[in-house]
Amino acid sequence: MAKLQAIRGMNDILPDQTPNWQYVEKCFQQVVHRYGYREIRFPILEQTQLFKRSIGEVTDIVEKEMYSFDDRNGDNLSLRPEGTAGCVRAADQHGLLFNQQQRLWYQGPMFRHERPQKGRYRQFQQFGVEAFGMAGPDIDAEVIQVCASLWQDLGLEKFLTLEINNIGSAEDRKRYAAALSAFLAFHADELDDDARNRMHSNPMRVLDSKNPAVQAALKSAPALVDYVSDESIAHYSELKSLLSQVGIEFVESPRLVRGLDYYNNCVFEWTTDSLGAQGTVCGGGRYDGLVEQLGGKPTVAAGFAMGVERLVLMLDSLGKIPEATSQVIDVYMVVVGSELAGPAQLLAKQLRQQFPELGLINHCGGGKSSNQMKRAFNSGARLAIVLETESGQPLETVKIRHLNDSGDSISVEIANCGEKLAEFLSISE
Ligand code: ATP
Ligand code: MG
Questions:
Q1: Among all ligands shown, which has an atom nearest to the Cα of 305?
Q2: Overall number of domains in the chain
Q3: Does 124 share its domain with 270?
Q4: Domain boundary among 267, 285, 317
Q5: Is the pLDDT at 392 greater than 80, yes or no?
Q6: What do you get for the CA distance between the two ends of the chain, in Å?
Q7: Residue 24 has pLDDT above 70, yes or no
Q8: 306 touches ligand 1 (CB under 6 Å)
Q9: Among 287, 317, 347, where does a domain finish?
């Protein structure tokens, strides 16, 4: 029978790779903790309606990328394509938003039916933060700083560029969309089908087109900046000033609009040229209208989401993952003879209790001493504890062997085994 394969675009992350992921996860968690953000977890499945109403009906995600299906009750559900909608739904449902300030973070898998390629998958992992109830540009500057701190901790700060833009309020954008729509209709014969389909339903998405011909036609298009209100401009200038005061460099990108409809005022992306085509590592901005749009009381908000695969790829290609993260275990216990299985497990149990940080593999499955030693060497452990007796003799001593080039080994009484391990490994109870 043919073997079953994983779904295209959905990756297995194997044990050799998981330390890299854990490293990035740990760094992210340390950073958000430093800024006082608390973790929220929400389901992977939600009502399809939630994503339609938040991300927008006429967006790539909702039009062609969602995994949606009817469940056994006939409810139309979707695998979450991003985190903000679910986070807002959960926080509002449990009364965390109205008249409150919240700093939240999440991590987890997201699903989009895109064309798989390097850095673009159908199941991918995001980290995100969402900050609710703070209207000023100070919180925008803060969420951007959260990213900058992470880049610094990961050693990526030189490889990422912050792009920002002011896309105005919902009102501003409505006026701009009308003008852009008229412009696109006038230039319809220079556009591709995708752009023509969107020129009335969601004209701003046309600005995002990757087609050079469409981009050329857009050269003389009306600019959003001319439609942005004074209030929005003031907010944006203050953000730029705050970023400068904390030493965060940025590039202003007038064409940056983001692919989700809920954003307003400041939006941003962190991009790199060390990943090829999939160069956006993180995107975010304000979304002041979303909570209300989803049925909650008006609550202003700002946040971002970053793609963990792209970060891991970047760290890997730049050689920025510390060696030490792949250290799995400290000790491999070699057990020669089935009669020693009991004493071996008892000794292992005592050592694990004595040193909660210790990683110890207790050999299972028997076999010759030489074969077990081979496994010990391959395990990456620094020490082997060898349990072996003359047949019929009680086990009184064990051998502790260094698994480095020296191969030194000493014999110790079982009762002193812990003390010796602590000395050799410089660990404490
Ligand atoms: P892109 O322009 O690359 O399609 P996006 O604007 O659709 O990105 P967002 O929805 O803003 O992406 O998601 C935030 C981040 O999540 C992206 O910057 C990227 O790092 C990551 N991401 C998005 N889609 C994918 C995917 N299919 N595979 C891997 N990572 C992804
Ligand atoms: Mg996309």
A1: 1
A2: 2
A3: yes
A4: 317
A5: no
A6: 52
A7: yes
A8: yes
A9: 317
